[in-house]
Amino acid sequence: MPKIDVYNMNGEKVREIELSDEIFGIEVKPHILHMAVVNQLANKRQGTQSTKTRGEVRGGGRKPWRQKGTGRARQGSIRAPQWVKGGVALGPKPRNYKYRLPKKVRRLALKSALSSKVNTQNIIVLDKLDFDQIKTKQMVNVLNNLKVDTSALIVLSDKNERVEKSARNIPNVKTALYNTINVYDIIKYEKFIITEDAVKKVEEVYA
Predict the structure, then answer these.
(1) How many helices (H) and strands (E) does the chain have?
(2) What DSSP element (H or E) covers 195?
(3) pLDDT tops 90 at residue 159
(4) Going by C-beta distance under 8 Å and a sequence separation of 6 or more, which residues neighbour residue 70?
């Protein structure tokens, strides 16, 4: 089992904990991570883009000139795709881009993402994270104490409005609950900060 240090909000090491091999110690599967990220981004697409075909643009009811004898190429409509203001050939139409990955693949991707954070030493475990009031400066101080000067995903075990609102105005910092984390966010944010209680719940839910 991988061992990792636990810090308090002052950035001081308080103890060590062992992480579950099944969640945080598996072999990272890059192709599975890629599948999960592509799936998540596809599911986010609105699919509302649309272009008009030659049957939908205005005009072009009659043949612009006779078939033969003019010296010009034959044309049947001024709204054919080769004409200015003509319809678009094979353009996008509204569609649904969503598709599902098998549950086993989704779980394996999440475990691979978490294990990659352990392998690269970009995971930070806190004994607790809570404030007495909503104040961005307090969260900034915690990040400074932990020497976090890059993007960070903060994972909590329970909803905490004081922590969430203290962090939401900090650029490149996002908070999430343990049961809402996803592969894209884990990979996108360099540092993965998680409370000790959230670690236990992640191990229970995804075991």
Answers:
(1) 7, 6
(2) strand 191-195
(3) yes
(4) none
- Same domain, residue pair 116 and 39: yes
Give pLDDT, residue 206.
Answer: 85
Same domain, 112 and 179: yes
Do 113 and 153 lie in one domain? The reply is yes
State which residues form the domain around 64: 51-91
pTM for this entry:
0.83
Task: Give the three-state DSSP class for 23.
Answer: helix
Domain check: are 87 and 103 in the same one?
no
Q: Are 13 and 72 within one domain?
A: no
pLDDT at 2 > cutoff 80: no
Measure the CA dihedral 190/193/198/199, to 10°: 70
Q: How far apart are CA 70 and CA 79, in angstroms?
A: 20
